[in-house]
Structure formats: structure tokens, C-alpha cells
Design a protein that fits this description.
Organism: Candidatus Giovannonibacteria bacterium RIFCSPHIGHO2_02_FULL_46_20
Pfam families: Methyltransf_23
Largest sheet: 7 strands, mixed
Helix content: 25-40%
Protein name: Methyltransferase type 11 domain-containing protein
CATH class: Alpha Beta
InterPro entries: SAM-dependent_MTases_sf
Number of strands: 13
């Protein structure tokens, strides 16, 4: 078996399967899923520390259908207050790193889902574009968020944009889900302008939380196919010729209402508007990366 990142054959079994990926792909996908500790066999490269589910176990057609048919995640939408605040924090960092670009400041959000981040990006002055496999999510983004530039698709949809078109491309909680994160990275590199930013997040396999929780870590989810460490992230960036601008822990904001609903497991629980107050939280086990394209 060969490592997908560095091509080394020094790959070993990290975790035995606790769930079947093929059965997972027969079910429904929800962003807010909390089925922690469930995964197929995970292997790790001894050379670069990148970990992955062997692609021989992945039916790509079933994987695409899994996301294409995903229903709207009501729990995800109910916490729009927290997600929008998370978006504004990231957009603030983007604004501080991205060079002023005229006459267009275009942003592409890969895996944009219902378009909550893109809506905030447009309010911040960006010309927003988005791609997502989910029919229901794309329809919601178009109809309820007014994002007509959101289209359904994956790599095929990204490929349709002109090269050197975007000043910023984002992918939040995406790379661990896709069949080939390195093909996605190659597309990102083509579509970014010189000095453009690629901003992405990913769970950290070598984080203290992951080490303490072991096989029960919440980063081990049935739909995760790839797992990055800090070293693997550095190699991923170097492989594409990008410059690392900043890497920090991914701070998410959640409304108190969302936290309470999760605790009592009632998505439709009515709560006064006071509970829409947001709080920041993270387990120091997910990284937020800003990388700059250097070549034209």
C-alpha cells in the first residue's frame, strides 16, 4: 500500500475498523453528526504521518451519491448565529492577509453547504461563489440566502471556473471527506490568482485531544477518509508550492440554544432569543490554515 501524500510504502495499520464505510455510504449524511469513534480501517504513513482509509475500500460513486442526496441538516441551520460569527472571525483574518485586489475580490467556498459562510463573505464585500454536492443544500443557498452563484458539483464544478480567477478559496471541514484531497488542492492552485489565499480546516490527528481520546476521538467519524497531522499539513502545503501564512486552532462559535438542544437531543426545542448568545469553543484538535499561492 502506498501513502497518498508522500508515496512512501512504509504504511502500517493505525486502527482496526469499528464500522463499515460501505454501510455508512448507504445512510444519510449530516454535518452535525456526532457518531464519534466509528470508522473503517485506518492506515498511517510512517514517513509523513498522513493517515487514511485505503481507497480500495471507497466506492467513489457511492461516496458522491452519499453527499448528493444529503438532506438539509436542520441542527446545522439552527445554529446560524454561531456559524456566522465563526465566518466573520475567519473573514477578518483573510482581510488582514489578502492583498487588495481590484476590481474584483472573488471568493470560492468549496463544500459551501447552505451558504452561511458565503453570505457573510458577500456582506464583507466579496463576490461570492460556492460549490457543493448536496442538491438540498445548494437549493437552500440559492433560494434562502440569495446566492445564485452557488452551483452543485465537486471537482468538475470547480474546473469550470477560469484559471487565476479567485483571490481567496476556502474549504472548511472538506479535505477529510473527499476521495482525493490532492486533486482538490491542484484545482485550488489553478483557480487561485498569484498571491491568493487558500484557507482550510482539518482535524489534527496528532493533537493532545486525539491522543487522549484514542479510538473514541470525535475526529474519527464514519465519513472521514483522510487524517492530517501538523507534519502532514506542512508537506501538503509544500507539495503545492504554497507559502504558509498562518496556522492556528480552529475556534468555532456556538449559540447557547444550539448547545442546549444538543445536550437534550431535541432539535426543535423552543428557547427564548436570549439563548442565541454565542460562545467560542474548541478542543485544540482542529487546525485552521492560511496558505498563499506564490506562482502565477
Amino acid at each position: 500500500m502506498m501513502c497518498l501524500l508522500c508515496r512512501s510504502h512504509n504504511v502500517r495499520l493505525l486502527l482496526k475498523p469499528s464500522a463499515s464505510l460501505s454501510k455508512t455510504l448507504q445512510g444519510q449524511y449530516f454535518i452535525s453528526s456526532e457518531r464519534f469513534g466509528l470508522h473503517d480501517a485506518i492506515y498511517q504513513c510512517a514517513a509523513c504521518s498522513f493517515a487514511f482509509i485505503p481507497r480500495l475500500l471507497v466506492d467513489k460513486h457511492a461516496l458522491d451519491a452519499f453527499y448528493e442526496n444529503a438532506p438539509l441538516d436542520i441542527q446545522y441551520l439552527r445554529d446560524s448565529f454561531g456559524r456566522k460569527k465563526t465566518a466573520r472571525r475567519i473573514l477578518g483574518a483573510i482581510d488582514s492577509f489578502a492583498p487588495p485586489i481590484n476590481p474584483h475580490k472573488r471568493i470560492l467556498d468549496i463544500g459551501c453547504n447552505a451558504g452561511l459562510f458565503l453570505r457573510e463573505a458577500e456582506l464583507a464585500g466579496f463576490e461570492g461563489y460556492g460549490v457543493d454536492l448536496s442538491r438540498n443544500a445548494v437549493l437552500f443557498a440559492q433560494k434562502h440566502c440569495g446566492l445564485r452563484s452557488v452551483v452543485r458539483g465537486g471537482g468538475n464544478a470547480i474546473a469550470q471556473f477560469p484559471d487565476n480567477f479567485f483571490s481567496v478559496i476556502t474549504a472548511f471541514d472538506v479535505l477529510e471527506h473527499v476521495y482525493d484531497p490532492f486533486s482538490v488542492a491542484a484545482l485550488v492552485d489553478r483557480k487561485l490568482r498569484k498571491n491568493g489565499l487558500f484557507v482550510f480546516t482539518a482535524p489534527l490527528l496528532d493533537s493532545p485531544s486525539a491522543k487522549i481520546m484514542g479510538p473514541y476521538w470525535h475526529g474519527f467519524l464514519p465519513s472521514h477518509l483522510s487524517y492530517f497531522t501538523r507534519d502532514a499539513i506542512a508537506r501538503f502545503i509544500a507539495r503545492n508550492g504554497w507559502q504558509l501564512v498562518m496556522a492556528r486552532y480552529y475556534l468555532r462559535f456556538f449559540s447557547l440554544a444550539s448547545i442546549i438542544r444538543r445536550m437534550v437531543q431535541k432539535n426543535d426545542l423552543w428557547l427564548p432569543s436570549f439563548f442565541n448568545i454565542t460562545v467560542g469553543a474548541h478542543a485544540f484538535d482542529e487546525i485552521e490554515v492560511y496558505a498563499r499561492k506564490q506562482k502565477s
